[in-house]
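Subject: two folds for Thursday's group meeting

Dear M.,

Sorry for the delay on this. The cluster queue was jammed most of the week, so I only got both jobs back this morning. I'm pasting them in the order they finished. Each block is the input sequence followed by the predicted structure tokens. Could you check whether the formatting survives your parser before we put anything on slides? The first protein is the one we discussed after the seminar.
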Amino acid sequence: MKSLIIAREREQATLKRLLEEPTAQFLAVYGRRRIGKTFLIREYFDDNFAFRHTAVSPLELENKDKKLLYKIQLEEFAHSLEKYGAQLDGPLVSWFDAFHKLEDMLDRKRSKKKMVVFIDEMPWLDTAKSGFMSAFEHFWNDWGCAKHNLLLIVCGSATTWMLDKLINNKGGLYGRTNREMHMHPFTLNETERYFKSRNITMDRYDLAQTYMIMGGVAYYMSFFEPGKSLADNIDDIFFREGGFLRAEYDRLFTSLFADNENYRKIVEALSGLRYGATREQISNVTGISEGGTLSTMLKALVKSDLVSTYYNFGETKRNLYYKLTDMFCLFYLGFVSKNPSNNPHFWRDNQASPKLNRWRGIAFEDVCFVHQEQIRVSLGIAGVQAEIYPWRATADGDVPGAQIDMLIDRADRVVNLCEMKFTRGDFAIDKDYDAKLRNKIDALLTATKNKINIQPTLVTTYGLKMNMYSNRIQRVVTMDALFEKAI
């Protein structure tokens, strides 16, 4: 039911347009595990499909014999065909046979309305030497693309497969997908709407912390229970024996990437590099050769919303930096995998610890980068061309080093030097912090040879406390601005 879908307005608009198109449509939907791909498609169409099939997960099978898996996938596809009215005269003998049976069944329906065919977790069907892709290409190129009343939707979490075999296919499916739908995590605005729909009440301070942990993944947030504190929910989900998401990190990588060991190496290396690293640096840390394979893996991590890219202000554009920005992975690697005490009340018992306070500060920076658009709107510069990135400079002679959380480098020759502070009340600038801020301004002016106008900007939870140092800050963006709906 559409009424159960939270947010996803753009995705719903795309589905509506595809239904109204007078010609055959082929939509590929991808995104990280548990992002809500299947939920969106099933609820939007109210499970009213001409045909729907979900592949069998090879991850859950104890016996992963390739021939057996191929047989199981065909048997389950046959079961789905019969469920939707196909009349089979025996077992399916190949994927060509399977798609011919699907064609026959759909032809018999003689529907004048758009027939929606939904194949979920398609990458799992493509087992070794099964001939699946050849059969699927033939199904679409020879039959499907000519059926004006057909909307074919295929879905998968295995990002590399979806990109290589479908969206960027150089063979028989080249240019055949009419649309691709990359489903991203929720924003803060959508996260707040999600919890309201489930009658879970939290103030925005706790909602922001929830986002720092769950990263806007609705499935992860579905484990929250009404009436419990944030700390108790986090302990239940991660730190108690049998916690719902204790094993999710492993499942995430096995579902996204067939050969996931090197992907984990990259993610775990980046988790310890706050400002990210170049491809060369990643190669040196992980031991993965700096060739095409590493580039392919990094692109897949970016497409999976686990890693983001940026350029360092003032450096050549050849130095592309990769930064781990998936908040669930950062939280898991920072706390869950490093909880040797096995304390089931770890989060509740450490609320005021320096480690958690440091984590909140760093995680809030990541939240702000996800919500760049909202920050620009709050500053009134949404229409100004700008590039956004963190910046750091090493000490050089008399010029001190500096690290700046976010620079908004604007086309109007103004740079917003943004500092992020996650505090329980208004942020107060003291003498020491004022000195650090002046040092950052001087370092940036030196690096740019005084050719820019710098606007020190504070992005914080509640606001700026006025005192003798507060006038150093020219603009203030509060947490409420981050909860605004994206344009």
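Second protein, same layout:
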Amino acid sequence: MGMFDVTNKPDTLRIAVAQATVNVSPETIRLIREGKSPKGDIVESARIAATIAAKKTSDLIPYCHPIPIDYIHIDVTLKDASIEVQAEVKTIWKTGVEMEALTAVSIAALTVYDMLKPIDKTLSIESVALLRKAGGIKGFKEKYDRPLKAAVLVISDSVSMGKREDKSGKLAVEALQNYSLSVNSYEIIPDDAERIEIKLKQLCDDLKLDLVVTCGGTGLGPRDVTTEATLRVVDRETCGISEVLRAYGQRRTPTAMLSRGVSGVRGHTVIVNLPGSPQAVLEGLAVLFPGLLHIYGMLDGHGH
């Protein structure tokens, strides 16, 4: 038991809005409006308490990740017989901020309760609720009228000759299936540029697959030729995909910048080069989805 492992999750914009309602007497509302609350400014105190609470959530809730908070906005509204506190919290990170928003309004409600208890015996915290949350990879939706088909091509002399067991390709197959793609081809070939080129053309032109993921041959070794073979096959490069893969990997492994992997499109098939290590494959696929899926609507002419 403990915090979830979010190591491989990509940073995305996350937003959460929460609200707490404190029931008070109409007379108490009148005193607040007249500035006669015995402990000072209720509204400003609630705002300050909520802001501090949002930033301290991981200190209070055991399994919450400490996260960078980019924005907090607190609204305190006086009703006829209640006080509503609403918090909006934003971050660009790996996990959401609903607990930060909920903690903010909870502490604000308790602050209101503490400040008003000398003059109002009817006080009660009526509700604490999450009103809205948005962002994250689950919030990114793409719709298709057909299932997407994929291939995994492992490129390695040692694996193809049986000197080493393939782990990367099998992990890629499993990961793609978890992203709801059907893997129609899984093959291991040596580091031979001509064979790589022929196989890529077959997967794109004959099998007409949607995605081809290659594993291996992206480094600077004398037999690392996957990049050159791929560049001869693609019609257009998708440089942004390769840039994101390297940037994401570099935050985790100092040598990720040495990967020369490229990506591109041949016809309606997307080809993505991943490094040969199992961890690099998992990290690469984690950052590719679900954003990569948007490319298929673009290729089908549905715009951006």
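Two things I noticed about the second structure. The chain has a mean pLDDT of 92. The first helix runs from residue 26 to 33.

Cheers,
T.
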